[in-house]
């Protein structure tokens, strides 16, 4: 959960790292459930709703 907490911050370097991490993933050809599983493999979502929202917004851009 510590990685998710760090990457879920709303500004600065942690946000840039989260964006780069998500942008590096390739979801082409995957159904939604497989893509979200692949997305969530590398970290645990943080407990804070605002941080989860940032992850989901970035995932949705892909």
UniProtKB/TrEMBL annotation:
GO CC terms, sorted: cytosol; membrane; trans-Golgi network
GO BP annotations listed: regulation of ARF protein signal transduction
Q: Name one Pfam family in it.
A: Sec7
Protein's recorded name: SEC7 domain-containing protein
Q: Which residues form the SEC7 domain?
A: 2-62
User: What molecular function does GO assign, one term?
Assistant: guanyl-nucleotide exchange factor activity
Source species, domain of life: Eukaryota
The listed locations are: Cytoplasm, Cytosol; Membrane
**Topology versus the membrane:** Peripheral membrane protein
């Amino acid at each position: 959960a510590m990685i998710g907490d760090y990457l879920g911050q709303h500004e600065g370097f942690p946000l840039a790292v989260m964006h780069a991490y998500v942008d590096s993933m390739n979801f082409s050809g995957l159904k939604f459930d497989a893509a979200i599983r692949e997305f969530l493999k590398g970290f645990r979502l943080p407990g804070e709703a605002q941080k989860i929202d940032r992850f989901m917004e970035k995932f949705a851009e892909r």
